Amino acid sequence: MAASAYSQVFISSKEYNSKSLYSARRKAMMKELDSICVFAGMQIDPGTEEAFVQTWNKMVQEPAFQYLTGINQAGCYLLLNPDSGEEVLFVPRKNPFKEFWNGKRLGYVDGDKEVTQITGIKDVRPADELWETLQDIAGIRSKRPADQRFIYAYYFEKFKEDHNDLFKNQLQRAIKGSGVKIRSAADIHWRLRLPLEKQRIQDAEKAQDITNKAFRTVLANMSKLKNERQLGLMLDYEMQKNSDGDLAFPTIVAGGANACCLHYVKKDEPLKAGELVLLDFGIRWNSLHSDLSRTIPVNGKFNPLQKMLYEIVLDSQTEYQKYVKPGVSLREIGMVPWEFIMKALDERLVKGAKGKFKLLYDVRPHGVSHFIGEQIHEGDPGSRSLDVVLEPGMLISCEPGLYGEFEATIAGKRYKEKIGIRIEDDLLITKEGFRNLSIDIPKSIKDLESLTR
């Protein structure tokens, strides 16, 4: 069976050898381990835990498991043994009837080598043998001393009741009484996963290129788009038609005052000439993402108040980027743009234009940066990895914003408006500082006004 039959089940690239990349990651992980480690993929298909869900839902794999295997399918597990170099993949037994409904799935068949051919993992076993294997390691079934003093599992100490925590609890019950302890492998995994390999950097660049073309197409058709939904549908279509994956996240399209809701989802209001519209959008290419925000004038022209506020946010991005370099953490530099914005509002709006403002928050509305990788918001879900020191190869967002009610007198005319502005680029950390992967995606006032039709 050709690997293409497992599209979206085994995530692979036409540009490089995906099996070799996943294998290198597993080997790097084992070098950091001093005991056996087990990773659990999503245990059930999405939606199947709810009785009222009767239709197919898109599969979204546990990113750590996908990072090491490329497998985007429920019911699979990976065991790594650093002592022997052994890699064991546990997959559900082959179920032709389920495939009749949902398409090809990796499945165990005695004597069949197809899963090995697809994934590159030689030792493939049925998923229902996982617990017996772990109990053998712990000496439970043979009533002998355990092979290991502890077993690593991938879970987060401060993040309870997600599927990784549930798996940890299952594992604790399975080896209860053996004396074997369980430790989290999350910190080890993050050290390896946050810096991108050259292949993933290429994927990120491809995602940027797709996003750029889609955004430019939207700008060229703005006069034809009458509401948020039409704009969002065009943007999504233009991104997805050129991608092998899916959207990085549901696109945000927020016109006028709607942009003051950070995760606005209503997306059905009319676009009004004279207002701004905020877009937050991105696409997935292989397992990497783009994550962009742009704020554009509906009729192609910023009014003076909008222009002033937009330039403040744009300048705050430039100020923040002065501090982006290896050796610092996101937490250390996280307040830079927000402090810049507050100072600029006082100098340019209040003092310079006899204006006033009322923000919808206290100085800092949201984080300015997050890591980007297998997840669009990469990093430890408890801490967001904000204290991780930046290294070359890491990819971060750069996303200052401004949301509130603003009033000013400019050239003798009084302007008053509730405005939300967000501008976001993706920065690849380099030895010298960073490279802006989003540099070609229009964001200057001059470019936005000249390209909007």
Structural class: alpha+beta
Biggest β-sheet, characterized?
6 strands, mixed
Strand order of the largest sheet: 4-3-2-1-5-6
Number of helices: 13
Mean pLDDT: 95
CA distance, first residue to last residue: 49 Å
- Helical content stands at 25-40%
- Count of individual beta strands: 17
Strand content: 15-25%
Can you tell me the overall shape?
Answer: elongated
Order of SSEs: HEHEEHHEHEHEHHHEEEEEHHHEEEEEEH
Q: What Rg, in angstroms, do the CA atoms define? A: 25 Å
Poorly predicted regions: none
Oligomeric composition of the shown chains: single chain
Can you tag this structure with a few keywords?
453 residues; alpha+beta; six-stranded mixed sheet; 13 helices
